């Protein structure tokens, strides 16, 4: 029987094949095996979901090159559903067992009663890369008891994921990646992990899990691919061993609250499959263990943006399969080990944003397949290795923000595939060499010590989009015609060099795509006629040159135009209507401001200061742009009144009219400038009373009214707490009179209790513009180019204030400067001034102050300038600390003062008198009850001693004490007499 067995098998196979062929032929020609109910369910599904015209761009990139096309459009009612695109049936039963509608341009909502859920025999379901926004992963998906493969990735599902999905116990692959807004219910993820024990692939990227990492996943031996990136995992990653022998991918990236050490793999046998390990964007810390070398198959290691520290283990040289290695944004330190001899497969190497030191190891030259090299933002030093060859694929070299020096090595100029070269913020010297290939798109050699001219090869780079050479020592004449080929150039920054410019009007040199142009701080002179990027130029900075004028300002898309500190002359150049930032300060412009300026309705910063502009200000200046935050007209010749109308809801932060010839009243409409921080009206001819209503402006920090014709008493305010944010107030050189405004002084909360140690020190202003001002402090007028947010000063000098100095000034304990000089103030120097512990300049000169200088002022250790001259002060001058540094000028004009540093000596060396306030308190507090108590006690003691002497005679101990004290007094009187006699002579 056994000898006939092969023949029987052959006959059986032949018969089965014939039957199968016959069935297939019959199926394809006449028989429909798809049950009518399933065909009807599919057609109803088609009808419930529409087709988008546009397709998902991810399909071809991520989904294995799959073309996006509407599969359901090919479903026809008169054909067998088992032949429809995306539908697979069981050949025996006809049941639909697979639906692949990925990349089908489907759009609509899958409701819980959708006919999609009427296929109980379904084994594979793929709806990826569609648009089901508004749909949820409902309980219907839990009905597919035979399902082994479910892919709903990138399809717009949102809301709670039904817990029924954890009933799919046969599931081998689950992919819900990138369904933003989808989330598991509490404990829903734990149930899924616990029940789906056959999972080989679990991809939940972007799904909100909000859970700790489940321990059970580390022992799921079937797992091959695990992606839980951006899922909101938190807590500590388990420290116990990982038993995942088949694992090829572990991706936990961007779980910012997930911490722990580098994962522990149980044994070498369990490490052989792992190819991708991504922990980036988490809070993992500690060092990389040397056992990482056991991950022999590892191709991608990404530990970027974590908290790892320590050094790179030398054992990494054994990862010979690795292609991508990223440690950027950590706290690694030490030298980069010389480990690259065997890592010839490495394509991307990123060690940026760490604390590596030392030099680049020579074995870097062995990475002949390297595509990207990034060592930026470290503390690497020395020269770049010069003996490097064979980098035919190197496209990105980023070494910026280090301490490299020496010349740029020649091999960097010969890389045939180089796209980006960034060596900025180092200490490279020498000339820039000529590049051999024209593939470069970005060059940044800024902030070095390079000199010489710009190499001509750079002007041949037709793909170049960004060129930064700023802050070097480059020189020479740059002809604009050289830019003819750089038609893709978007960003050009040659600032802070010594370049001059020869301009051509040739149309081919106009850089048609230029967006940003910075030529500031160079040697450009004469008329500027290079009309580059007429339609595209967004930012242009030509400040700090010697440009005398423009033929026109033709740029229709201009946002930022900075022309300050040049030699511009002639009439005011009206900026393009699109301009947001316009500065022509520190030039020689003359004439009036054209009302056309008010067409620039998007203007945010307008700085015309330090020119010779004159005439009356256009009435529209206060209301032509709701975005205008800075209006600076300082140091011109404007006359007339300040514009009286300001837009409601305006953005004004700084208004500076200082040093003009403006007159009239302070505009009452300023009260609607709720964002105002700086108001500078100094050095004009304004004739008004104190604008107390400004106290209602919640953000006002600087108020300058000096050198005007303000008059009258400041008085009181109806506002409960006026000027709460004010910290710089200058009312000097006006005609204010009456008492110092105690109510306002009590309200200056911004000058009290500044905790500089716990506050961020910054300058007033923003990224677009920083405020500046002239301040009289320490006896001199100083220009503050920037104003620190901790600087505080009060200047009420040169007015007609009278009365005593309020004690409440002592509460302003964060004041840096106080000037009350040249008034008619009387009374004592308040003892509360001892609380002004931050004060650096105190000027009370030219008043009518009397009494003594409080000894307590010696504790003001920051005090650098003190002026008490021209008063009626008396007594000794306090000694100690800063008072030892003040000269005669601080005290002259006070005949009653004596002691150092004056030549007049005091009449006694006795201990300094107590302060006037203490004396006054003693006088007012004299109590006869205490005096009578002392008198009574003395009487009792005296009578007792008298009785003792009478009974015992002359006590020797009492006689000895009395005799001794009388002797001391006689000797002291004799010495005193001799001393006075010596001074007289």
What does this entry look like structurally?
Helix content is 12%, strand content 23%. The protein has 8 helices and 65 strands. The strands form 8 sheets. The protein has a 32-stranded mixed sheet, with no helix packed on it. Strands 12-14-16-18-20-22-24-26-28-30-32-34 form a 12-stranded parallel sheet, with no helix packed on it. Strands 52-54-58-60-62-64-65 form a 7-stranded parallel sheet, with no helix packed on it. The longest helix has 29 residues, at 956-984. The chain is elongated and about 120 Å long. Residues 1-30 and 915-985 have low confidence and may be disordered.
Largest sheet: 32 strands, mixed
Q: Characterize the overall form.
A: elongated
User: In which range does the helix fraction lie?
Assistant: 10-25%
Please mark out the parts with pLDDT under 50 across 5 or more consecutive residues, or reply none. 1-30, 915-985
Q: Classify the secondary structure makeup into a structural class.
A: alpha/beta
Distance between the termini: 155 Å
Percent of sequence in beta strands: 15-25%
The count of DSSP E runs of length 2 or more, i.e. the number of strands, is 65
Give average pLDDT, whole number. Answer: 87
The number of helical segments is: 8
Q: Compute the gyration radius: what is it?
A: 43 Å
